[in-house]
Amino acid sequence: MASRLEINFIRLLSRCESIASEKRGEAEWRLEKYVSALEEMMVALRKSVSKPTAELLTEYMRKVDFLKGLLEADKLSSTTEKALANQFLAPGRTPTIANERMPVSKTVHMQTKARCTGEMRDELLGTV
């Protein structure tokens, strides 16, 4: 049985993954705030009396680190740097919620990779 904190963490993580999968504008501030809240919740989960198993904590941390890395890669100036940073991101291995066939973080990783490749192609061909 998951604690209230873990349930809220999973809900926020799922929301962050769905925001990350959408095309974000420059004025999108929610994802950054949500990821920082996830980090705080992660610390609280580790200190919790009814904390999840070590494997689950590791998977949660991997997903939070992936989202953090995605935000950092978006802040880079050149498309080449973004593409390179995106290659080093490690998406989560398991689905966040039960009804997912493929982990959303893997889908986000593929979408971001395709977006970076498209931007590099546009930059190279001068079709911006």
From TrEMBL:
Write out the annotated subcellular location: Endoplasmic reticulum membrane
* Any one Gene Ontology cellular component term annotated for this protein: endoplasmic reticulum membrane
Keyword set, alphabetical order: Endoplasmic reticulum, ER-Golgi transport, Membrane, Protein transport, Transmembrane, Transmembrane helix, Transport
Q: Which InterPro entries match?
A: Vesicle_transport_protein_Use1
User: What species is given as this protein's source?
Assistant: Champsocephalus gunnari (Mackerel icefish)
Chief location bin:
endoplasmic reticulum
A GO BP entry is: retrograde vesicle-mediated transport, Golgi to endoplasmic reticulum
| Name of this protein | Vesicle transport protein USE1
Output the Pfam families linked to this UniProt entry: Use1 (PF09753)
Q: How does it sit in the membrane?
A: Single-pass type IV membrane protein
User: Belongs to which family?
Assistant: Belongs to the USE1 family.
Output one GO MF annotation: SNAP receptor activity
